[in-house]
Design goal:
heterodimer; A: mainly beta; 7-stranded mixed β-sheet; 55% strand; B: mainly beta; 6-stranded mixed β-sheet; 5-stranded antiparallel β-sheet; 11 strands
Chain lengths: 114, 111
């Protein structure tokens, strides 16, 4: 099975731009997660989907961050408008339905906002 | 809100010596504990998952969980230079699917 795929691997944006990050989960996985990783805050959950339904979103990220699951094999994370403090690595993970299963992580997208 | 803390922040061991990493958590109702490894510029790789008190071994990696002490540890037997990475502890928030991650321990294995 292919692992979790994320594109692009690197993104550079000007402040105020809109950027869209993409994720393809492992085939057959029903749960999908978006995380942000920074040196200071570590890994923070942005959104959690189960069978395409949004189950949880990180409260602090609601205003400019929007994750969508368009179908069971594709998800996007839109940041609009971007700010320099959004510079981080954005990780997508998927798992079979249920918390006893492992989350499999993609390689991440490194975002730099100038 | 679950708090997860890891120690030490960084650790250097010689190849072949045991490496021990620690993780404490605040929510005693948690029942889902995982150790991940992250090599630079790569995604996270799960090493061991443990759900009840005691020990769980996966190859050279052994996790010990003591929920009464709010503590879970990872021991790496015969570490190799290729094990040099950041190790992350993740604990679920009680009653939820949400995983809370520690800040990581940077392990360096010298040959």
């Amino acid at each position: 099975d292919a692992g979790v795929t994320q594109t692009p691997r690197h993104e550079v944006a000007e402040k105020g731009q809109t950027i869209i990050l993409k994720c393809e989960p492992v085939s057959g996985h029903n749960d999908l997660f978006w995380y942000r990783q920074t040196k200071i805050q570590g890994l923070e959950l942005l959104s959690y989907f189960r069978s395409k339904s949004l189950m949880e979103d990180g409260g602090a990220f609601k205003d400019r961050f929007k994750a969508e699951m368009l179908n069971s094999s594709f998800s996007t994370l839109k940041i609009q408008p971007t700010e320099p403090k959004d510079s981080a690595v954005y990780l997508c993970a998927s798992r079979r339905q249920g918390s006893s299963y492992e989350q499999y992580f993609g390689p991440g997208t490194r975002l730099t906002v100038l | 809100q679950q708090k997860v803390q890891q120690s030490p922040e960084s650790l250097t061991v010689s190849e072949g010596a045991m490496a021990s990493l620690n993780c404490t958590f605040s929510d005693g109702t948690s029942n889902n504990f995982r150790w991940y490894r992250q090599h630079s510029a790569k995604g996270l790789e799960v090493l061991v998952s443990i759900f009840s008190d005691g020990e769980k071994e996966e190859g050279r990696f052994t996790a010990h969980l003591n929920r009464a002490n709010l503590h879970v540890s990872l021991h790496i037997r015969e570490p190799q230079p290729s094990d040099s990475a950041v190790y992350l502890c993740a604990v679920n928030q009680g009653g939820s699917a949400k995983l809370i991650f520690g800040e990581g321990t940077k392990l360096t294995v010298s040959s």
